[in-house]
């Protein structure tokens, strides 16, 4: 497993520590998305954060994080399932360019109308039922600051995040104070110890540099930061890129357009080109491929090529 998320708990069980560094899955996700480096960085940070948060949900489903505004970047969206299958996308407005040194607010929120959305979507949700959705103003100069603000005010959880990304890797470290379970008699003492542990861990993590987080493997990073601490170690979890688009699904969509429409596209362009609106994966159908879509009069789909999830 080349990309894994690792979890730890402090000895007093008051602070959760999670870390990951993604390379293979991240580069797979970027393979068909042509984005400016600054936007790659933002998308990567949100991707790392989504996996860190999704690993803690208590249901079978997914976490969707979305940054949206009226700047040159209209949308950044990441989805990660409870099994840590993730996908991510970002979209510039048509003709938009990013100014040199543009930050999150410059890209998404020049008019202070930007918003951050968190959606928790159970996989067994019945038709007509709505997923949980929280929407807050887009506050903070970094993805980490936006998420920390949301967790503090919407989830009432003390959470700190350190995130970094480029075209090669995206990485993140999460610290979260665990909900208190102390009895009234020992509440003051336990709270005092919890506060000390929280302050100790955040002070150590604040020494992290972005380049160090992005380039250092997780085991080395945790040893470097918490070498004096006894940590409870949990089984690591594999993280992978997964977009459910496939050649078969695209073929099914083309078939619903009908033969006259497909023939019209072939006459004009010589082939039918479709790219997944989420991950950018391209699919091409030539005249022979398109003919095969309608070859079975019984109505069953005859899709050429392999059905390859990516």
TrEMBL record:
Species assigned in the record: Castellaniella ginsengisoli
Keyword line: Chaperone, Cytoplasm, Disulfide bond, Redox-active center, Zinc
Highest taxon of the lineage: Bacteria
Secretion signal span: none
Pfam families assigned: HSP33
Entry GO terms, CC: cytoplasm
Gene Ontology BP annotations: protein refolding
GO MF term set: protein folding chaperone; unfolded protein binding
Name this protein carries in UniProt: Hsp33 family molecular chaperone HslO
